[in-house]
Every structure is written in C-alpha cells, then in structure tokens.
Amino acid sequence: MKEALWEAQKALSIGEVPVGAVVADTGGKILARAHNRPISLNDPTAHAEILALRQAAASCGNYRLEGATLVVTIEPCPMCMGAALHARISRLVFGASDPKWGAAGSLFDLANDARLNHRIEVIGGVMDASCREKLQDFFRGRRGRVQGQGEVPKWS
C-alpha cells in the first residue's frame, strides 16, 4: 500500500485526484504501478487501476493476470472492478472505501457477484486513514476554490 500511496502523491503533484495503484505477482514483485491521469491524458478511463492493469498485462505478455494482486488507495469503481475481473486478478487490496462509487462491497459488490464467472478476494481498509486523508485533503482544497471551478477544467 505504501507504493500505491507514493503513486497517489504523484497524481496529486500534477493536479489529478490522488489515487495510486500497483499490481504485484504471486511472489509480491511489483509488475506495474500507476496513478490517476484522466485529466492530463484527456481520457475518462485513465484511472490508476486501469493504467496499472494495462502496464502489468503488457509486461507479462498476457491480458490475464491470474494470481496477481491489485493494490489501490481507494475502492475501485465499477469500470475498474470490471477490468480487474476481466484480467482475472486474484486479490484486490484497497485502502479507503468509496460509498459513492465503490464496486468492491460499498455500493456494488462485483468481486463476489454470483452471476459472474470470476471472483476476486477483497481485502479492504488497509492503511485506510492515510488513504482517506489524502483524498479528503485534496477535495477540501478543491471546495475552497471559486464556484464553477472544480476537479476538472470547465468548458469555455
């Protein structure tokens, strides 16, 4: 989780929502690391988890990452959980829960949905306070700005 938090700090330094992710193999070796970049890449899919999964799949030469662990600072959204399920990730470790978008038990529980053909072991709340604080500080700073300016640039 410390490595994912380091990635979250990188996102923060470029004005992105501070979310970081790493993918590790069965032995704990980090295969990939990434941070949120949807604003800087103009890509709504450029969440930390998606970028880390892409990188890990490329390094393994296979889109299936069986046995791998995805570690992320916040509970993944439905898009990211869908990608983790397609990649056949074995384990998800996350820090802060996300009651508004979480798809690993908070709002949805895609990791254990009996209608799907793959299950992911979920371990939540790892370094929860550190992960949550980083996000809360970021959004507190955003709320202090002038009305009409938010997380992303607005159309002119």
Helix-strand topology string: HEEHHEHEEH
Strand order, sheet with most strands: 2-1-3-4-5
Shape from CA axes? globular
What is the C-alpha radius of gyration, as a whole number of Å? 15 Å
| Arithmetic mean of pLDDT | 92
The share of residues in extended strands comes to 15-25%
- Total number of helical segments? 5
* Structural class designation: alpha/beta
Q: Gap between N and C termini, in Å?
A: 39 Å
Major sheet size, sense and barrel closure: 5 strands, mixed
Instruction: Work out the number of β strands.
Output: 5
**Helix percentage range:** 25-40%
Low-confidence stretches: none
Describe the structure in your own words.
35% of the residues lie in helices and 17% in strands. Strands 2-1-3-4-5 form a five-stranded mixed sheet. Strand 1 and strand 2 (30-35) form a beta hairpin. The protein has 156 residues and is of the alpha/beta class.
Q: Helices and strands in order, then pairings?
A:
Layout lengths: L1 H12 L6 E5 L5 E6 L2 H4 L6 H13 L8 E6 L3 H9 L4 E6 L24 E3 L4 H16 L13
Parallel strand pairs: 3-4, 4-5
Antiparallel strand pairs: 1-2, 1-3
Helix pairs in contact: 1-5
Features:
single chain, 156 residues, alpha/beta, 5 strands, 35% helix
TL;DR of this structure?
The chain is built from five helices and five strands. It is of the alpha/beta class and 156 residues long.
